[in-house]
Amino acid sequence: MAASNPIRRLFSGIWSGLNALRRVLHLILLLFIFGILLAGLSGPQLYKPHDAALLVDPVGELVEQLSGDALDRALGELQGDGIRQVLLRDLLDSLQAAVDDERITTVVLRLERFEGGSLPSLRAVATTLDGLRAAGKRVIAVGDSFEQHQYYLAAHADEIYLNKLGMVFIDGFGYYRTFFKSALEKLQVDLNVFRVGEYKSFVEPFIRDDMSAEDRQASRQWLQSMWSAFQRDVVAARGLQPGALDDYANGFSALLEADGGSASAVALGQKLVDGLMGRQQFDEYMIGLVGEAGEQSAAAYNSIDYRQYLRLLRRVPAGLGQAGEQVGIIVAAGQIVDGEASPGEIGGDTLAELARQASEDDSIKAVVLRVDSPGGSMFASEVALDGLRALKASGKPLVVSMGGVAASGGYYISMAADEIWADETTITGSIGVGALVPTVDRGLDALGVHVDGFGTTRLSGQLRLDRPLGEEARQVLQQTVQDAYRIFVGSVAEAREMPFKQTDEIARGRVWIGADARDLGLVDSLGGLDAAVASAASLAGLAEGDYTLRYIEPELGWPARLLEQYAVRVLGTLQRLGLRVASRDDSAMSLLRARFERQLQALSRMNDPLGIYMLCSCTID
Q: Domains in the chain, start-ordered, CATH in brackets?
């Protein structure tokens, strides 16, 4: 059945070649990095703040797990073309530490370079900001402009200041997909599709030119639920009237006309911001609150960047705080692929190995699996699930905490848990399967390329890329997909203790929002990672304060560990030495190229040995 993936193998080969070339070039730079590493190690001591502001200026997308290895990230940062990501737990750890830190009096949010994240991740940060305010810390948001995801966090500040030339842009959520049926027809490529579940829509872009009625109906329900939750949170945080954001987005053009085209005046008039300030004016305002900065800070006012603050917090000897009883956390983030995988995607073998390590470590008394995945390979999902079931069989409680998305294969690997927790806006469900088998015989025929021959059985050659898909192969694939769906639904029914028929009714590839999934019995409780950890500890008989947390991750080699530990310091050393660090290219062509590379990489990840996928294309704009 491996022959059913010729396009995947083609794209995988192209991507592997490009990736290998990239890593060779990166390794050349590695010698340069280690050449200046000693200088980095002898750099200035970390600045310790006093009556200062914590400057939160995240760069990139908020993620559960950084993509790639430490080498790729460090060298990408040096070259200016790295993946811009913000690790959720880093941001939360710095904010939570500031709650009880008397040296931090104020938190400043600068969000221009923040590229958003899932709504559950944003809500986790917002909850922490609310905790800071409750503890008496002043939270101030400032920006040249605020996009929708940026404004969500800014809304949880005590004060919001906007540049007079800026804008608060809120346009709601969108669910738009690109369809390729007509393009494939022009190329004379046939996509043979096999699926079970009328809502299983990840195959639709290849067989349709528009959204199906089933996908439109189901997606409208969960998308509207997410938008309602977004509005509710912002309205409550800012003390606005219900429906204020809908009115603002729907009437933005008229509001602009009434205010002479000034978007900042509209935002101020609609009480979305508290004042208009330029950069210099804001610096002077902050100097009045926390004083002028010393030589250690690049800012005008007394402050410390949250990344530097986090390094200061984590300067403890190796192993300190890891003794005693622990709750282990395994992060499963990204698309599920067969075999082993680097961070940012889920290798079936990799996840199973982490589960084995957790089961054999006597200091780990319970495990929380943090899932943020749209699914992927069914075979890899089964391998991972086997490993997690073995962990549970060892007697250690296993609790799943769902992040932004835990759908299809992401739900499948969650079924071994004693409990499943989700945010009310988590995208989950999508219990269904599908397979895609491309054939290009018509295109080759148009070029004058013809295939002829014979085989020893009826199935011989029926799965070739350059021949029409044979009838026997078609029947085999359809029956295999139907059996895969039966296994999926049956496993869910058994794990959730529901009748098969009832499970099938809420399956069929349909996506559910976390709150609805709880009502349907697909998840047990609503809450974030902290709530899931507390529940896992309780199931293990651990009292609050009697255990520590430990992230269970693949072991890094010494070069990667060294780079991960000192990459930020090395970058600082380069800048002090006057050596140029490449700037990021955000041109239109660069962004298009990056989008193409992401699509190519996504296709290369489709490596299921049987060509069967449990995948949800449930992303929002």
A: 1-31+319-439+464-554+585-621 (3.90.226.10)
